[in-house]
Write a structure and sequence with these properties.
Blueprint: E1 4-8, H1 17-29, E2 33-40, E3 61-64, E4 67-73, H2 81-90, H3 99-107, E5 111-114, H4 117-134, E6 139-144, H5 159-172, E7 178-181, H6 184-193, E8 199-201, E9 222-229, H7 238-249, E10 254-261, E11 278-282, H8 289-292, E12 298-301, H9 310-314, H10 318-325, E13 330-332, H11 336-345, E14 348-350, H12 358-370, H13 372-390, H14 392-408
Parallel strand pairs: 1-2, 1-5, 2-4, 5-6, 6-7, 7-8, 9-10, 9-12, 10-11, 12-13, 13-14
Antiparallel strand pairs: 3-4
Length: 416
């Protein structure tokens, strides 16, 4: 009999690349019966750029690419950390009176896989209630895409709210059977909280790009790329993009390519004098990203708010592996996890500044443009490590091992 998996989602799009495109599809492809319980906002499902699907996916329950999708309204389940903490301590099944827990119980799955604090809370409700009422011992995975709450971020949460969220997290991880996360640093952070917590890393890497052709770097133009969301003051600062594009285009044939862009409802206004040097693809299908990277020479990542974000320092984001998968060296400011990775594998350039300026990036791009052989070596290394170690083809094997271990009860509980 096929084992049933239920993905619990609270804030992500149901088409999220990690949740749907990678994990759910991998499990389905390998014989699991997969259901996802996902949120609607104001009655509507939404894409990865937050754009609502106005007339698409109207059914409450439907199948998408062979995966069962069950929906609920997010407005009916927005618990505070304080509320969740109180309910967990009281250990009263009636307090888990929320749509995500109710729908999850109806699925009666073997493994539940939660992706946020609120969905993990719902998962604990499911685990407790199935055990109490049906004597069924289900397994619960928490997939920590990042650190929430971020210990250094004081811009959104008050100290009281952050303390409540941290208390909530520390309470809930005692009731999970497996933690999955995305970098060694985040894994170490969790193990420091609970040394006996079974914890594995599943990197946010894509499947290997097919029909890959190694770059020769013999063309005159240099194309630098940013993949993802462009924001004002955080990752992908538009001011830096405009400035280093201006500086580089005065000296070389320079092109900056943005795969993605602003979120739904926002606009990116490019200054007239560099409009011809910036290429916008808009948001593209996940599987089409590699085609848009065929002419890219360098990938760019800038996390310059590290004093306010431990997540940024610990991150190995989707775009990082997307660049490497296409043999594209990465230029980044001094971020702990990416710096260690790049220096270990010689697959990019790290600017030795936590806060790198547009001028710093322009200097780095111009340096690599002059040193095309170094750039080619980095490119070869980038593709090679994805082929051998880090592609989703390898991550899928690790994911299946985790699931198999949970189902046969042979998971190693010790991490040292």
């Amino acid at each position: 009999m096929r084992k049933k998996i239920c993905m619990l989602v609270h804030t992500h799009s149901f088409l999220d690349s990690r949740i749907f495109k990678k994990e759910a599809k991998s499990l389905q492809r390998n014989g699991y019966d997969v259901t996802m319980i996902v949120p609607r906002i104001k009655g509507t499902l939404f894409d990865v750029d937050k754009k609502p699907f106005d007339k698409k996916f109207p059914a409450t329950i439907f199948k998408h690419e062979g995966i069962k999708i069950v929906t609920y309204n997010l407005e009916t389940f927005k618990p505070s950390a304080s509320e969740m903490n109180k309910n967990l301590v009281k250990n009263n099944d009636s307090l888990f009176n929320n749509p995500l827990t109710k729908l999850g119980i109806e699925e009666n799955a073997d493994i539940y896989h939660a992706h946020e604090l609120a969905s993990l809370y719902a998962g604990i409700g499911i685990k407790r209630m199935l055990n109490n009422k049906q004597n069924k011992n289900i397994k619960l995975i928490f997939d920590s895409h990042d650190l929430i709450p971020d210990p250094l971020d004081n811009r959104i949460l008050t100290p009281t709210n952050k303390a409540e969220m941290l208390k909530l997290l520390e309470t809930m991880i005692e009731e999970i059977d497996q933690l999955i996360t995305v970098s060694h640093s985040i894994k170490s952070w969790y193990i420091a909280k609970n040394p006996l917590l079974p914890t594995e890393i599943i990197y946010n890497s894509p499947p290997l790009t097919q029909n890959y052709v190694q770059r020769n770097y013999d063309q005159s133009r240099l194309t630098v790329c940013y993949e993802g969301h462009i924001a004002d003051n955080r990752k992908g600062s538009r001011d830096k993009i405009f400035k280093f594009t201006e500086l580089c285009s005065k000296k070389i044939d320079f092109n900056f390519k943005i795969i993605g862009g602003v979120l739904h409802g926002h606009q990116l206004s490019i200054p007239d004098h560099i409009e011809g040097n910036i290429e916008l693809t808009g948001w593209v299908d996940y599987h089409a990203i590699s085609n848009h990277m065929k002419d890219v020479d360098i990938g760019w990542i800038d996390f310059d708010d590290l004093q306010n974000s431990l997540n940024r320092s610990y991150a190995l984001p989707n775009k990082f592996f997307s660049y490497l998968n296409n043999g594209i060296p990465v230029v980044v400011n001094k971020c702990h996890e990416m710096e260690n990775f790049i220096k270990t594998h010689n697959c990019g350039l790290v600017i030795n500044k936590v806060k790198a300026t547009a001028e710093d990036y322009a200097e780095a791009f111009l340096y690599l443009n002059k040193n095309r052989e170094k750039l080619k070596t980095m490119s070869i290394n980038a593709r090679k490590i994805m082929e051998k170690l880090y592609s989703w083809d390898e991550m899928e094997k690790d994911l299946l091992k985790i699931y198999n271990s949970l189902l046969v009860g042979s998971i190693n509980k010790f991490n040292f």
